[in-house]
Write a structure and sequence with these properties.
This protein is of the alpha+beta class and about 120 residues long. It is about 45% helix and about 30% strand.
Length: about 120
């Protein structure tokens, strides 16, 4: 593994753990220079990184494991990554509010039924 990837692995791990940069972009330019993968780092091993991937609509998709030897570049903290994170967090908060309202409504209905 190149020293760049070793230091990138260490650095990205620290940043995601601190949630300073919740999303990273992984490039595998030697395999396909027109594609990148964006997500939250879920796991590192000595040979791989697993991303919980996010799509352009800021919706979470499957987790995918990538070999570190295939990664040519790692980006983070860019405008696109930050925008995806903001939209996904806004959507998560909206879903949570709906769940809370539904739970309160359900408890209220049960209270009326028990009277």
């Amino acid at each position: 593994m190149s020293s760049f990837l070793s230091s990138a692995r260490s650095t990205v791990s620290q940043w995601t753990a601190n949630e300073q940069f919740p999303l990273v972009t992984i490039h595998r330019e030697s395999m396909d220079d027109s594609v990148c993968y964006i997500g939250k780092v879920a796991k590192f091993t000595p040979k791989t990184v697993t991303l919980d991937k996010i799509d352009p609509a800021a919706e979470w998709n499957e987790s995918t494991r990538y070999n570190l030897k295939d990664i040519t570049r790692v980006d983070f903290g860019g405008g696109y990554e930050n925008a995806l994170w903001e939209v996904s967090e806004d959507e998560r908060k909206k879903r949570e509010q709906v769940r809370r309202r539904q739970a309160v409504g359900h408890r209220s209905r049960r209270g009326i039924e028990n009277e």
